[in-house]
Write a structure and sequence with these properties.
This protein is of the alpha+beta class and 198 residues long. The chain has 2 domains: 1-37; 43-190, Rieske Iron-sulfur Protein (3-layer Sandwich), CATH 2.102.10. The chain is built from 3 helices and 9 strands. It has helices at residues 2-34, 40-46, 78-86; strands at 49-52, 61-66, 69-75, 117-121, 132-134, 149-151, 158-160, 180-183, 187-190. The strands form 3 sheets. Strands 1-9-8 form a 3-stranded antiparallel sheet, with no helix packed on it. The protein has a 3-stranded antiparallel sheet with strand order 2-3-4, with no helix packed on it. The protein is elongated. The termini are far apart.
């Protein structure tokens, strides 16, 4: 009888140990698996960003962050738009934006839905540096052919007022254009282009 009691006790201990071990594995695995989900902050960073441009003056630029990337919104003056339109295609690597990251509705010389509003990701396509705005015309350090645009101080890439890369720059493609749309005249939603048209 003691052999039966001993066998029964062993069986009970084996089952109890297995159950407790299984529960421990599950309780340990739940936080580990949950850590693979993006945080609320990361989820929010991927969502659309609304930008009110109602008070943005001619020639001024506002910066926002979308998906962890800087996005610039520039209200171009008529003079700036004229300089873009007068830019000889021979000075640009990709004048038609055939190789560049951008929505189809911005595949035009101004790379925009509205001629006066440029929405562009402010990251150089060479090595990811942040270009700076250089809207002055023909400054001594950039030469007489410079009609204004964006200059990357890291390796000298140059982009015009539409974010198109200039010949001779190490950057391979134009600055990216994110998906975006207008809601009325003064509100832009970056990251959502539902119903957007040029």
């Amino acid at each position: 009888m003691s052999d039966e009691a001993d066998l029964s006790r062993r069986h009970f201990l084996t089952v109890a140990t297995s159950v407790v071990g299984g529960v421990g594995v599950v309780l340990t695995a739940v936080p580990f698996v949950a850590s693979f989900r993006p945080s609320a902050r990361a989820q929010a960073m991927g969502g659309p960003v609304e930008v009110d441009i109602g008070k943005l003056e001619d020639g001024a630029m506002v910066r926002v962050v979308w998906r962890g990337r800087p996005v610039w919104i520039l209200r171009r003056t008529k003079d700036m738009v004229g300089r873009i339109e007068a830019e000889p295609p021979s000075l640009l690597k990709d004048p038609d934006s055939a190789e560049s990251e951008q929505p189809d509705y911005t595949r035009n010389p101004l790379r925009a839905i509205k001629p006066d509003i440029l929405v562009v990701v402010g990251v150089c396509t060479h090595l990811g540096c942040a270009p700076i705005e250089r809207f002055d015309v023909a400054p001594p350090d950039l030469g007489p052919d410079w009609k204004g645009g964006f200059y990357c101080p890291c390796h000298g890439s140059r982009f015009d007022m539409a974010g198109r890369v200039m010949v001779g720059s190490p950057a391979p493609t134009n600055l990216p254009i994110p998906p975006y749309r207008f809601v009325g005249d003064n509100m832009i939603i970056i990251g959502d282009d539902t119903g957007a048209k040029a």
